[in-house]
Amino acid sequence: MGTDTGADTDAGAGADTGTGADIPAEPAERARVAAFRSRIGVTSLIDVHTHFMPERLLAAVWAYFDTAGPLIGRPWPIGYREDEERRLALLRGFGVRAFTSMLYPHKPGMARSLNDWSADFAARTPDCLHTATFHAEPGAADDVRRALDQGARVFKSHVQVGDYDPRDPLLDPVWGQLADAGVPVVTHCGSGPVPATHTGPGPIGAVLARHPRLRLVVAHLGMPEYADFLDLAERYPGVLLDTTMVFTGFVEATAPFPQAELPRLADLGDRVLLGTDFPNIPYAYAHALEALEERTGLGPAWLRAVCHDNAARLFGLRR
């Protein structure tokens, strides 16, 4: 991706330039999010793509973003660089009733300790959907079984950062376990913001061919291979997509969602989930919601399903 800041001049969606310097003061932003919820007819949101992880690891992730590393490719200032309690308070203030702690290993040997941290975080944070992860390594199947036994309700697979092939035979029992358990796995398998060795629809498509019942949540709508991942969702009923960062000015500047694909996205409205990447976003949380509303034009019923009802059904959350 280039160095364009993704500035946007549309009303509402253009309230943030994507530089990270335009995050509104909390009361003003809470009012914007509340107004969005009112317009689409929900009292709360469910965000399936938020990041909570051990503080030292999160600091390292932020440092990587600060240097615009090779997996980023452009300036990416962190919008919500706050301590854990403050970040929780912000999400709750936006009316987010359930969220995830997306965490991921960048090398083998990390997954089990991350899963233990996440299990503790979920135990002390009742509105967090207990999240776990894995890497392609000999103990992957054992790590996933242990996390499931601990109560994990959703997994994160970061094919780009982990730099592993999802078709690796070491992961075959992992995908099988997750398919059998019906537990969703949010997977960064698209080639945005920059391609990696095993990103794109081909590798993960081969996994789905072998495990067609897998509940795979394609992060970022598969950016930038949007059409290809819509194909996979149409082919496999267990495939869902999350909206993380898509339609924002920051992403539209370099990887715009094709307008011609909006009817297909509308037809898949019961399998699209709200995701944001909070806190690691270079614009206001409210902007992600407003951009989703304005750039899709798919209306309140579609947005209600995406921002609350689909995830509530997926995770068995009562109203």
From TrEMBL:
<dbReference type="GO" id="GO:0016787">
    <property type="term" value="F:hydrolase activity"/>
</dbReference>
<keyword id="KW-0378">Hydrolase</keyword>
<dbReference type="Pfam" id="PF04909">
    <property type="entry name" value="Amidohydro_2"/>
</dbReference>
<dbReference type="InterPro" id="IPR032466">
    <property type="entry name" value="Metal_Hydrolase"/>
</dbReference>
<dbReference type="GO" id="GO:0016831">
    <property type="term" value="F:carboxy-lyase activity"/>
</dbReference>
<dbReference type="InterPro" id="IPR006680">
    <property type="entry name" value="Amidohydro-rel"/>
</dbReference>
<feature type="domain" description="Amidohydrolase-related">
    <location>
        <begin position="46"/>
        <end position="317"/>
    </location>
</feature>
<dbReference type="GO" id="GO:0005737">
    <property type="term" value="C:cytoplasm"/>
</dbReference>
<dbReference type="GO" id="GO:0019748">
    <property type="term" value="P:secondary metabolic process"/>
</dbReference>
<keyword id="KW-0456">Lyase</keyword>
<feature type="region of interest" description="Disordered">
    <location>
        <begin position="1"/>
        <end position="24"/>
    </location>
</feature>
<dbReference type="InterPro" id="IPR032465">
    <property type="entry name" value="ACMSD"/>
</dbReference>
<protein>
    <submittedName>
        <fullName>Amidohydrolase</fullName>
    </submittedName>
</protein>
